[in-house]
Design a protein that fits this description.
Blueprint: H1 2-24, E1 26-31, H2 38-54, E2 57-62, H3 69-76, E3 84-89, H4 90-99, H5 107-110, E4 111-119, E5 122-127, H6 135-144, E6 149-153, H7 159-171, E7 175-179, H8 183-191, E8 197-201, H9 202-210, E9 214-220, E10 248-253, H10 258-273, H11 275-284, E11 287-288, H12 293-313
Helix pairs in contact: 2-10, 4-12
Length: 319
């Protein structure tokens, strides 16, 4: 009896120590992209304030590769004490399971939602030298052209590609999908006027738009962007079904205790309410959007169904 009691006390002590470490020690936010990109920007914008709220040190771990699957698997298999979390875009945890025949994780079995962090509207841009001044003008021109208009994407099955597929189906425009390996080379060729257009996140394009190098024609969102209020939505252009929100969210391994998840959720809400953090995100074009765990779960399920249908209809397969 004494041995059993001693063992129980030791186990309880170990759990308490683990929880205390997660709260007061180091918390790792794993992202599936290299430093310098939009996801990295957002997570580093919130990390200091989030660390203050949690009374912990936040470390950002960049683990690019396999379209996010490497980073996701590393978090899914990590110690579920809440010290290792996945800061994911919609692509890895929602799109990848439909895009690949097999992924090394199950989104709804291996992860639990913590909070939505930001919404990122997708915007269509052309080179400033382009003759197109509006979406309807481009669509009509494409239908009359002998050759399709080349539209860049960040790769097969990424949000820019899937948005393009949505738009092509809705508009019947004569467009040619040109996949690149990431946003940087796609944007580089667009700046060089080597392709006719590009769908991308506002945060990744806002600098080029404000610098006068790229012209925005339409936003794939239900409302206009606060940072680009003069740019119409695609709904206003006649294509209301074309909406693409490349949201970023925080998820945790499935077995992390509820108390830890609740603490993380509260920390995100307080962080995004911080004036400096909010101002920096809004200036970049990202919309702070804290949520409950239930709201994020509902969004994940809704978008899983939405993008899986497009992938199936268009017979899209990862390279």
């Amino acid at each position: 009896m004494i041995k059993k009691l001693t063992a129980a006390l030791a186990l309880a002590g170990a759990f308490t120590a683990g929880s205390a470490h997660a709260q007061a020690g180091t918390t790792h936010l794993v992202i599936a992209f290299p430093a310098g990109g939009p996801v990295d920007f957002v997570v580093r914008t919130i990390s200091d304030q989030m660390g203050k709220e949690l009374k912990t040190t936040i470390v950002v771990d960049n683990k690019p590769g396999a379209n996010g699957n490497i980073a996701a698997e590393s978090v899914a298999r990590s110690n579920p004490d809440g010290s290792t979390l996945f800061f994911s875009s919609v692509g890895t945890i929602v799109i990848n399971p439909s895009l690949y025949e097999k992924v090394p994780f199950n989104t709804f079995r291996d992860f639990q939602p913590v909070s939505l962090v930001v919404n990122n509207s997708t915007i269509f841009v052309v080179n400033q030298a382009s003759t197109f001044k509006s979406i309807p003008e481009m669509v009509e021109a494409s239908k009359k052209a002998k050759e399709p208009i080349a539209i860049a994407s960040t790769g097969i099955g990424g949000m820019p590609h899937l948005t393009l597929e949505l738009f092509t189906s809705a508009s019947k425009a004569n467009l040619l999908h040109v996949p690149y390996k990431g946003a940087a080379p796609a944007i580089t060729d667009l700046l060089g006027n080597q392709v006719g257009g590009f769908f991308g996140d506002i945060p990744g394009l806002i600098g080029h738009i404000q610098g006068g190098k790229l012209r925005p024609l339409g936003i794939a969102a239900p409302k206009r962007s606060a940072v680009l209020p003069d740019v119409p939505t695609l709904g206003e252009a006649g294509y209301p079904v074309v909406e693409a929100n490349n949201w970023y969210a925080l998820v945790a391994p499935a077995k992390v205790p509820k108390a830890r998840v609740d603490a993380l959720n509260a920390a995100i809400a307080k962080t995004l309410a911080n004036d400096d953090v909010k101002a920096k995100l809004l200036k970049s074009g990202a919309e702070p959007a804290p949520s409950s765990t239930g709201e994020l779960l509902a969004l994940m399920k809704k978008d899983t169904v939405k993008w899986a249908a497009i992938i199936k209809e268009k017979k899209i397969k990862a390279e």
